[in-house]
Amino acid sequence: MTREKDINQMLKDHGLSSTETRRTILGFFHAADKALAHADIETMGTVPLDRVTIYRTLQSFVEKGLLHSIPSADNAVRYALCKDHCADGHHHDNHVHFMCDQCSRTYCLDEITIPRIKLPLGFTACQTDLVVSGVCKTCQS
């Protein structure tokens, strides 16, 4: 399948209509080798996208299980593609995220899972985030 067909299929599989804006933003994530922030998306591409449209698109992608959000120390939420097993309202991206202090890239470390946290009786976890900061292998070379 071509990238365009892949993107259209992803949108369809997650119950979203295929609009030009959605295809463009999802294409940015497919092309990136890192997580993206709202501000990154604003500067990508040849046609400027409206800030509110970007925000709404990102939120719908998170809600439908296409993207997961990654908190950061600077309060600029970043987003990364979910794996195939995420669905509408249910994320299964239980992995560590790494933020490089030098290049500011955020990586999903899929091979490192976050251990299950045993909570006291009466508490229910909805999401667990583990972010490690340091220097990535690219910046160290």
Q: Can you give me a brief rundown of this structure?
A:
The protein is α+β, with helices and mostly antiparallel strands and 141 residues long.
Summarize the helices and strands and which ones pair or pack.
Elements: H1 3-13, H2 20-31, E1 36-37, H3 38-43, H4 51-63, E2 67-70, E3 78-81, E4 95-100, E5 106-113, E6 131-134, H5 137-140
Description:
It is a single chain. By secondary structure, the chain is α+β, with helices and mostly antiparallel strands. The chain is 33% helix and 20% strand. It has a single domain, classed as Orthogonal Bundle (Arc Repressor Mutant, subunit A), CATH 1.10.10.10. The chain has a three-stranded antiparallel β-sheet. The chain has a three-stranded mixed β-sheet with strand order 5-4-6, with no helix packed on it. It is globular.
Key attributes of the depicted protein:
Arc Repressor Mutant, subunit A; single chain; globular; 5 helices; 6 strands; alpha+beta; 141 residues; 3-stranded mixed β-sheet
Give the SSE string: HHEHHEEEEEH
Number of strands: 6
CATH class: Mainly Alpha
Level-2 CATH architecture: Orthogonal Bundle
Query: Beta-strand level of the residues, as a percent range?
Result: 15-25%
Number of domains: 1
Order of strands in the sheet with most strands? 1-3-2
From the spread of the alpha carbons, the general shape counts as: globular
**Biggest beta sheet attributes:** 3 strands, antiparallel
- Count of individual helical segments: 5
Sequence stretches where pLDDT stays below 50 over 5 or more residues: none
**Any idea of the CATH topology?**
Arc Repressor Mutant, subunit A
Q: Calculate the terminal CA-CA distance, rounded to whole Å.
A: 35 Å
Considering the protein shown, what is the CATH homologous superfamily? Winged helix-like DNA-binding domain superfamily/Winged helix DNA-binding domain
What is Rg? 16 Å
Overall mean confidence score, pLDDT = 85
